Amino acid sequence: MENHIDLKTESSADLKVFRSNNLKLRRFTQNFAYSLVWLAGLITVLSLLVVIGYVFMRGMRGFEPGFLTTPPAGGLSGEGGISTTIVSTVYLVLMTITIATPLGIGAGIYLVEYAGEQSLGSKTVAALVQVAHFGVETLAGIPSIIFGLFGYALFVTTLKFGFSLLSASLAGACLVLPTVIRTTEEALLAIPTGLREGSMALGATKWQTIKNVVLPTAAPGIITGIILSVGRIMSETAVFFVTLGGSFNMPTSVFSSGRTMALHLYYLAMDTRAFDKAMATGVVLISSIIVINLLINIVSRKLRVGVRD
Amino acid sequence: MNNIKLETRDYCLNYGKFRALDHITIAIPEKQVTALIGPSGCGKSTFLRTFNRMNDLIPGVRVEGSAKMDGQDIFAMDVVQLRQQVGMVFQKPNPFPKSIFDNVAYGPRVNGMKDPRMIKELVEKSLRGAALWDEVKDDLNKSGLALSGGQQQRLCIARCMAVQPTVILMDEPAASLDPIATLRIEELIRRLVEDFTIVIVTHNLQQAGRISDYTAFFYTDESRSGHLVEFDLTDIIFTRPKDKRTEDYISGRFG
Asked: If DSSP codes are grouped into helix, strand and coil, which group holds residue A92?
């Protein structure tokens, strides 16, 4: 062996001291680092609990019988319940998801499954695909009010949809499209090449492979993206502030104005004296989001069981 | 010698500027096991994937020369029809995350078979053919992923047989299996060859010796392109090869 290391250059006594010192120092750094991350974890969890605890405590004061089933009374008092805002929220979520899901999944499939091979054939397509990838990533990080103002300019005024569920769901779809596209892309990319090859080798066409093997395997990941979007829409205010209007009446058509729970919370806190009612709305909102996150956990656990690489 | 099933003439394959396979000329006989052996990176897997055009899926691949099945130009055939006739078993068992039944029924279904009774018969026949039926006949609805590695590989062989190909390509089908599962696959291959033409890539020389009728030795030199050095009856390749490089490889002097 020509490259063995000669340990005898240092006296063995020195080596011992060096080793034990080093060990003490390393133990200390280890404990110090451990304390730091432990503290960071503790602070994070505590502050989260404080926020949720505060909202629940104040919110419980705002709860009264029929809070969920009566409409808001309006006016400065902030009296009444939140029934119409729940309905508006549900409508808006359903409409937004209906618009965003097929578009987002379709775009994700195109970018992962088809864009690559088409890029080989044409430099123009390759450039466009690059722009699309970059665009999706950038859009995911843009402040939501930008989508709101865009929605206001295009859907509310130019297309004359007015402040309505339609305008709001179209703007909302723009907001969550990047999320749906990216989670779809990630779910598709996570599928082992072997599965695709296995299907093609049996004489399946590319589309048969996508439809019968790729999409079912990627479904849990894609569904996670959709559920994430649902949470995003429920908690969003800026976009809907400028596209949905703020009417607390029961929406009757897609051209009705409306008020989501998150918006209602904002109005109550800013324009009325009913701060506890705002917090009570917050409780409903937080509970719904918790349920949604539980759903995501269940779905992604299924993902891990369903697919092995 | 049997009829020639697969044949290439001066077949070259390039990835962009890199020539991965250089002027391969070979005639693979029908209903025999032909083993492709050689050191890593000599192009044997790439060559195997010529016969079901799996290389079509890789961007930037360009081929020259001819490759034929039953005298027909492989590259002029419809690729879906070609793959119905030339099945493939991969190194890593790749059952779909579907039930055992749906795994085997997948090929017939995508190729247009609708009659549930016919599909059911074909699934049973294929699972029997792949020596898996007795082990799974009571849980056909269980996920294919729940099977052991060796069972998964036999499931993949059954899935391949269900399309009723005439050729089965195998890319190191036992490389990820334990010795007992490997033995079962080898026994299966010997039985399958009564009905199918089998081309198998293997890194395991003993395996090539045990199961193949013919052996093709691939080798690569400084150019890193794959060449076919020698192709003959397995007995001849293993006992009195004509080429020095074959002899060195067989006797374990490199590779």
From this structure: helix
- Interface contact B110-A204, CB threshold 8 A: yes
| Pairwise CB contact (< 8 Å): B87 & A117 | no
CA angle centred on B204, ends B245 and B209, rounded to 5° = 75
Cα(B58)–Cα(B41) distance, integer angstroms: 17
What are the DSSP calls for A42-56, one per residue?
A: HHHHHHHHHHHHHHH
Distance from CA of B230 to the nearest CA of A (A): 28
Strand partners, B227: B219
* CA–CA distance, A138 with B123 (Å, rounded to integer): 49
Give the number of other CB atoms < 10 A from CB of residue B164.
Answer: 17
What lies within 8 Å, CB to CB, of A265 at 6+ separation is A278, A281, A282, A285
Q: Is A289 touching B (CB cutoff 8 A)?
A: no
Burial class from Cβ neighbours inside 10 Å (0-12, 13-18, 19+) for residue B217 reads buried
Q: Which tens digits make up the pLDDT trace of B54-97?
A: 998 787 889 999 999 999 999 999 999 999 999 999 999 999 99
DSSP conformational letter for B143: B
> Tokens for A94?
């359903």
Nearest CA distance, B98 vs chain A (angstrom):
9
Q: Is B161 on the interface with A (CB under 8 A)?
A: no
**Inter-chain touch A200–B57, beta carbons under 8 Å:** yes
Q: How far is the C-alpha of A175 from the C-alpha of A96, rounded, in Å? A: 10
Which 3 state secondary structure label does DSSP give B75? helix
Q: What is the ipTM of this complex?
A: 0.90
CA of B161: which chain A residue's CA is closest? A202
Rounded to whole angstroms, how far apart are CA atoms B4 and B74? 14
pLDDT tens digits along B25-62: 999 999 999 999 998 888 899 999 999 999 987 878 89
Residues in B closer than 8 angstroms to A200, CB to CB, are 54, 57, 83
Q: Which CATH architecture has domain B4-95+165-250?
A: 3-Layer(aba) Sandwich (3.40)
How many H-runs (helices) and E-runs (strands) does chain A carry?
A: 12, 2
> Interhelix angle for A123-140 vs A165-189, to 10°?
110
Query: Rounded to an integer, what distance in angstroms lies between the CA atom of residue A101 and that of residue A115?
Result: 19
Q: Do A200 and B83 touch (CB under 8 A)?
A: yes
